[in-house]
Amino acid sequence: MADNHSAHTEVPSGGHKGAFPPFARDTFASQLVWLTITFVALYVLMAKLVLPRIGSIFKARSGQIANDLAAAQRLRDESEAALAAYEKALADARARAQGIAAETHQRLGKQAEERRKVLEGELNRRLAEADKSIATTKNAAMANVRSIAVDTASAIVERLIGSVPAKSSVEAAVEDVLKR
Fold first, then answer.
1. For residues 99-117, average pLDDT
2. What pLDDT, on the 0 to 100 scale, is given for residue 158?
């Protein structure tokens, strides 16, 4: 079998050769120069190109936001005006409907009152005719009752006494009884 003690045991020859390059004293001055050049270049690039673009983007966005807010406020005002107009139209329609209902109610009430008066007049006329007819019938019946009463009384007296009584005396007796 193969010898498997460790995968890598070899150490580089010469070992560690000095400080980490950014901290090396020989290259420190050149690194500061390049750092300054890079910083100035980035500063100029940012100040002249990037920041004005970002500023214009912010300005455009704030302008767009202001325009959107103004449009939203305008639309809100329009919707509130439309809502107010709708509510006014609805209130006007309700008022007109109530007016129409009241007018119809009054008109139908007047028609019903007129019809009731016509019907009452017709009923009163019929009642008067019926009263006349009843009075006529009653008078005729009373006349017949008198003659029937005279005939009946005459027949009863004849049966009781055996002779026919005088018609004038029977009529006088019936008249006397009817007066009571």
1. 93
2. 82
Residue where the block lists tokens 């009241």: 102
* DSSP secondary structure of the chain: ----S-S--PPPTT---SS-GGG-TTTHHHHHHHHHHHHHHHHHHIIIIIHHHHHHHHHHHHHHHHHHHHHHHHHHHHHHHHHHHHHHHHHHHHHHHHHHHHHHHHHHHHHHHHHHHHHHHHHHHHHHHHHHHHHHHHHHHHHHHHHHHHHHHHHHHHHHHSSPPPHHHHHHHHHHHHH-
Dist. CA 61–CA 96, nearest whole Å: 51
Phi and psi at 124, nearest 5°, equal -65, -40
